[in-house]
Amino acid sequence: MNHRAEEEFKVNEANSDVYNFTFAVIALDHIHIYGMCGGLTEAGATMKWVYDPDPHKVSSFLKNFPQAKVARSIEEILEDSEVKLVASAAVPSERWKLGMKVMSHGKDYFTDKTPFVQLSHLEEVKRHAVLTGRKYMVYFNERVHSESVLSAKQLISEGQIGRVLQVIGLGPHRLNINSRPDWFFRRADYGGILCDLGSQQIDQFLYFTDSQNVAVSHSNVANYNHPAYPELEDFGDCIMIGERGECLYFRVDWFTPAGLSTWGDGRSMIMGTDGFIEIRKNCDIGRSGQSDHIFWSNRSGEHYKHVKGQIGFPFFKELIMDCLWRTENAMTQSHVFRVADLCLQAQANANHLTPDTLSLLAVDSGS
């Protein structure tokens, strides 16, 4: 379900439960807002308002969610006591500030990834969350809207592959360069590739391993093939080590070829003490254009399952319940802040791979 087109995010009323839970939408800068709102409404939440200063974005949004009323301002939404949650896909550099404002008005906040582009903003929001008692939740779509990832977690929880030792995450994306907004190419606005796309991989590592004490070992970023956009990073990779020695290697990039049937051949390989799992999230290349394939081998043999349509997306119902009952079943606040901290550390300390960088490394190694 990752990165589906706008028209696919139609509300399936037949699958909706009924809750007395109202939310609003502010800022439509990224298409992920359609997945966020589709998940909430399908889980039974009521969308009351939408606001964005761009009327064209609002018009497109209303084609999929005609039940929303168009607010005249952000303040009209924030002053509405019926609204319990604000969902938002603002420009990444603006997400934290909007979140602070939402939380100050006694509402929970649900933002697209990445939640922050600066460590100082993360620290401010941490303090504000304690002060207000409100939630700052994040849409890590490559997990919460991926039945294959959820299925892999079930296998891990059942002990099918023993203790997780290593996760390898591959997150290629299609650039679609001509359709990207200006902010996409400004480093200060999007935060860098490890901060942005890397947040998805770090979220999944913590999810698969239940790790919290994780350190960044090494990270790289590069602009290999887009000199016309000097602030764009089209490649990044990273190694992290967990508290029990479990490790993560991930690679993210903007090099999905034109001939691939989907936006990216996202995969995860999970090695355990008693087996391994491979997740093919978006396609089984050359064989199936359908998403959500999972392969695993353990002491009992070799296994394959196509899980699309079999699990659903429980995160959204759990998020609604968490907001109503102040629980933390969908996602803990500490998890959100830990993922954010790690992706910002990885980004801040990354080597910038250029011919000069490689020459310096060769000199340092004595070659």
Automatic annotation (TrEMBL):
The keyword Amino-acid biosynthesis does not apply. Residues 150-277 form the GFO/IDH/MocA-like oxidoreductase domain. Pfam families: GFO_IDH_MocA_C3. Keywords: Oxidoreductase. One of its GO terms (molecular function) is oxidoreductase activity. This is Oxidoreductase.
